Amino acid sequence: MCTVCGCGEGESRIEGVTDDHDHSHSHDHPHHHHDDHEHEHSHAHGHGDDHHYGHGPARAHAPGMSQSRMVQIEQDILSKNDQYANANRQMLADQGILALNLVSSPGSGKTTLLTRTLTDLKDELSLAVIEGDQETSNDAERIRETGAHAIQINTGKGCHLDAHQVGHAIEHLKPQTGSVLFIENVGNLVCPAAFDLGEAHKVAILSITEGEDKPIKYPDMFHAADLMLLNKIDLLPHLNFDVDKCIAYARRVNPKLQVLKVSATTGEGMSDWYAWIRGSRQLRLIGHPLSEPLNIAESVKNHV
Fold it and tell me: In 17, 20, 98, 120, which residue has its Cα 20 to 30 A from 283's Cα atom?
């Protein structure tokens, strides 16, 4: 868990933002030196090969740090992050912006799926992207080639985006009122689950090349998501992947999880994804001055 692993402190940077920017960061990782050598171990010694470090209350392990101390640090960091996330959420709501936090492991095809989505919807919706990677702006450049506005956040050693980084990125990106803002998080199925960015929904992308048991290996992410896109289904004839078992695993950890089967390469199933975006945006705008008559069935019919 990154809240105790020391990821990213002082290494993140937002494209176009100078280093002298006042950047009081929510991700202060304190360095605690325990003179009393408080030393709790959540794992058992000498009981076989199953060393499960997530059985303690912190669900993690750090040498020399107690479970209770790790829990306190995590609570402090997440509490600060939640304050920034709530500010982001209020700002996005005021401007009628639908923010979707795209999360996945590396290699899921997330950027390909996003570029196809931007290309197919750019004439219909105002779209913008916050791109998160540890290094390079390669993906942001791919995004800009579609014509969409994009800004890159490089997290350095950080393994996820946090709400403070995203808030600053929104200030510089300036997405249009009523737009759809995609946040492509760092490829990681663990840490992004814990960090609320102020988004309307987390969307988990899982490719069939990763194995059907990912949802029960990394349950926090699939529990936090509202939608799972099962990507690369065009490869099903060539792989030994049980779709039904994968969906059953995902709904074991999150019974309310919606699942769509898509291929960003061939376009199969992408119309369902687009209909989900349109419907979510309409719901987002209820009560907003930009509100449109809510007729999802008519919207779907017009775009199938």
Answer: 120
**Cα separation, 226 vs 204, whole angstroms:** 8
Tokens representing 160? 């996820």
Closest CA to 202 of 181, 226, 186: 226
pTM assigned to the model: 0.79
Whether 45 shows a pLDDT value over 80: the answer reads no
Backbone angles phi, psi at 96, to 5 degrees: 65, 35
Residue whose entry in the numeric block shows the structure tokens 């506005």: 149
Q: Count Cβ atoms below 10 Å from residue 113 Cβ, excluding itself.
A: 25
Check if the beta carbon of residue 187 is closer than 8 Å to that of residue 107. Answer: yes
The first and second tokens of residue 177, run together, are: 């009122």
Instruction: At 280, list the tokens.
Output: 């979510």
Distance CA 88, CA 197 (A): 7
Residue 261 has pLDDT above 60, yes or no: yes
pLDDT recorded at residue 291: 75
* β-strand partners of 152: 131
Please tell me which residue, 177 or 8, carries the higher pLDDT value.
177
Query: 279: how many CB neighbours lie within 10 A of its CB?
Result: 15
